[in-house]
């Protein structure tokens, strides 16, 4: 078998694929953050909690009402997104226009409250969500066993990422959004309900996190703390990609998944640090991020 | 009358002074500090319910010892040796805490026991696993009560090797506990004629195990051993089943599983997994009776750690009652001299290195058909006698043991 740095090629190809799968999660999560920051200038520290809520809601809807996976894939982001709109309307709106640090602290507080309450109810051992029947099993690719579900994660995440990028960058609605946040008075003069647009944007960003949560439910332990560890990594991804750059968030997400995956093969103890190392390097040489526009 | 009273008081005072600190309860209070992970990965196995077990012990003891109050303070260790160290330093130096109970992450216990030694206070560790706590890290100021990695490896690893799992690949949590468990497993596997063909040290905690599971599969080992705990183990088991580890002919061996982990996995996913435990709630009338009371208070069945916290606190208070002192060395000596016979252990003994040795149990997770309710999860396959379970003193590197 051919080897690369002492690692069989087959193992390496497997790790690359795994990296892309994890990268798809990072992309989806950092995309939501980038949308919220890019359009609303809110640093959303509640993003991890929303991801967790997406997964929790999926499990709870199944346990209480028998709601199946496909319905949850739409319902959970919808519910969590609506919850996001409520947070925007009652809390974030009150500090609009203030320094970024305010939104950071506020959303961080909200995240801690949500997480704390859920820990009290459910503990941290985690809830189980059974793999949907149609995704059970997998296919042998020769170099690795590929569970069907992981393949679906890549497809679903990339579709949603591309869709979001397209809507914001290429459609009229996206143009309104960008213009509305650039100069809200002017846009209101044109008869566009900017506050509503802002609420919906926050709700949408949060719904993206919840969507990632639903995707995660069958493969990870669903626990109230699952968001907090992921959040820090995802923030690093957004910083590397360039705060607010939508396309940058997607590409960087996948790239970081791959880099992390390779580290897990060559030197596992560094795998939790490697993304931050990249972040430090990027900030040193390109302070506005790989895809950021202004310095 | 007043004269008499004065005389009496001074007599008592001089007796107290003569016997020094040994025969007194400092500050007229026995103060117990409960330190555990209250919000992170290891919350459910000890956490707030461990504090409930501690409170149950104090209430069952009568709420006071020798007429003195028993107080509890508690803190979240956040699985951080730094946070824990500063908490415990404050407790023992400024807040007159006499004994620290709980303690889960092994790195926390090792850090805390050093501070307890400096200040000559007592620690009773119930949650931690590393066998090094009473080996190279032993101090005259702590007791390790419930279990450690030595019997975990002895019980589970030797059972799996004897069933034909000769070559092992280990997924190890990269900190004190994982390292300790890994070396204990290596010893047992090799002693039984097996071989460890590879090991990965993964960051603690890890959510996504797919990379590691893939490497374990590629190794072609008979057994994938999980030398981790809590959510790391349950995540690894879930991922292994998703990637078809067992279908491809490899056996999965979880070396440390708590009842709460198995409960979270459910009998469907966890069935057939063998594990070693220091205690199980459904072993006999005594354990069931206590567990029912625990469940009434907390809503869940107790883990071995919860039971150990209860049992060790009762032993601690009994020792204070017998000696009339809360001095660490006096109490520890008394606890070492008293065999433990309660719902937690039969004929348990605390050795000079601080290790409480007692029978351990090899258990198997029931199938969904066998399991009568959500907490009916283990079949006890075998009792591993105390002397077979723990590291013999003759192999000890502890400074308190004359080898």
TrEMBL record, chain A:
Membrane topology type: Multi-pass membrane protein
Predominant localisation class: membrane
Pfam families: BPD_transp_2 (PF02653)
Residues annotated as transmembrane: 12-37, 49-65, 71-92, 104-129, 149-168, 196-220, 232-259, 266-285
NADP as UniProt keyword: no
UniProt entry keywords in alphabetical sequence: Amino-acid transport, Cell membrane, Membrane, Transmembrane, Transmembrane helix, Transport
Domain of life of the organism encoding this protein: Bacteria
Compartmental location: Cell inner membrane
Similarity comment: family membership: Belongs to the binding-protein-dependent transport system permease family. LivHM subfamily.
Stated name of the protein: Branched-chain amino acid ABC transporter permease
Automatic annotation (TrEMBL), chain B:
Residues spanning the signal sequence: 1-23
Domain Leucine-binding protein: 29-366
Pfam families to which the protein is assigned, alphabetical: Peripla_BP_6
Keywords of this entry: Signal
UniProt protein name: ABC transporter substrate-binding protein
Signal recorded as keyword: yes
InterPro entries linked to this entry: BCAA_transport, Leu-bd
Signal recorded as keyword: yes
